């Protein structure tokens, strides 16, 4: 379905290529810009109004549980890093807080949160880029960025896969806004002024408060753009002022900035979070292809137009590609950075692809150059459209399949209502996603049996990679507990939360059998659980413990 929807979305974008070929540059720019804006708006609307969340992947279901738990924590007023450990920046739970305020919490809170962030990215892109780039460039940037934000597509491949995982939405959010800022720093300055520079600083702060590595990379790109005089020194200063002012305001209002930095410092002490040099090496080739290809494309566009060749755009394209490579290396994703898709757009903007002017040929040589320029122009836009066609196609597939299959009635009236697992997985009981899904339902049943769903029952803490149960039970998530456990990344035998803090308000503890994270947590916390909790129910997948009273009996 994703592949078919991708082809359908690509066909819808085909008029863009026709416009580049047949229309004058100024008309083509307006047409492409308008189509890009409209398509981006449609994707945001679709993401906000999905009737169900459809999941079709052979793994990563437990990663989706982390998003459900984030929504649940936000609904109960828990703040990341302040109320629970989180290496993810606080923007993630801020956006979910808005989502659960707009609509009662269910599975579609995840695409609604993406739609909200997509709308914010749309607005920031318009405000920061309108006076700097052509309307056609603006439309392409908006479409790439918004499609990146809202897509449920499984990452790792440049071409569309046949599955949807909703894996780590915050990575897509940060990548999309980082791509917009990259365009601002790498395209010609145009009429960029102090307000736009301040908003760029705000945008970097937002990225920083989602994934600190993305934000640090953008600061590095700002330095490069300033060194090569693509950003005026006074504007660079304003960008840094906007960045610092935004972080300061966020800290004063929420207190989450310093708390998040403390959590990130803790995470940086884990061995698995060190510099992934092998991953970097594996991605250098792809980054080089995008960088060199886009630089050559820029030079060819200039060669066949009246634009003089410049050194600065080539350098900035190379720096942006290197930045994208390092970001991806830190986040395990191949062929995923929308910054790559922005490189040919940056090249086209520098080459004046949509600049108004008479390009009529007056000689055979100029006729030949005009034809070559048209071919290169169509190629440039086609390359740029690979990403939105891929990601937009996945959103179209999500909408169609969410309407095709009914939601699981067993999840009705829970915080995961509206969740749909592709029926084909239920026919393959040994597949990882089916096992995880059935484990979730089994644990849910056990907890209901022991009274965890009762109105006066306390929170449930899961010794498992993720905890889907508070959302299922419509109960607050346990305080101080992160949204996921990954041995060597969010905890270890040496670095973990003290027992009294970890179990501070948990009335129930549910231990996942066969889950590596759960087994590692059990080794750490078993003495405390056995002393303060008593076994209440068990199954092959889970054991449920209930807190003892002061006299050693169950509460």
UniProtKB/TrEMBL annotation:
Keywords: Membrane, Transmembrane, Transmembrane helix. The chain crosses the membrane at residues 7-24, 30-55, 107-127, 133-152, 197-224, 236-257, 277-301, 313-333, 339-358, 370-389. The keyword Iron does not apply. Signal peptide: none annotated. It comes from the Bacteria. This is Glycosyltransferase RgtA/B/C/D-like domain-containing protein. It comes from Roseibium aggregatum.
